[in-house]
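Batch job 17 of 40 flagged for manual review because the log was empty.
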Amino acid sequence: MQAEKWVARKNVPITQFDIPNSELDKLDIKKFSSADLEWGDFVTKGRKGTLNHNHDAVSGPMLANPSDAKRGKVHKAIGLQFVILQKKAFNLFNRFKKFNKTGKNCS
């Protein structure tokens, strides 16, 4: 599992969220199902600081080679990530936080 590998490398907790789809549907979530051209453009602009959007969150592949991508090389994707960008999304996720990898309640 990707999150467990991250915990092992970074020594950070895994937090679980149990959010009803009806609540998630209230957010503007930009979803990338693959590392396509649109994703590459979005990532490139984000890395350059020229990205302009109003999404509450973004879901999609992680950039595996950020240094190379900044220099214009081909983007490589690994795993998936979900990025919370707006207070509205943060508040929703905070409301439905369950527990972390240590088993402690996150509330």
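Reviewer: the log was empty due to a logging misconfiguration, but the result itself is present. The chain has one domain: 2-98. Unflagging and moving on to job 18.
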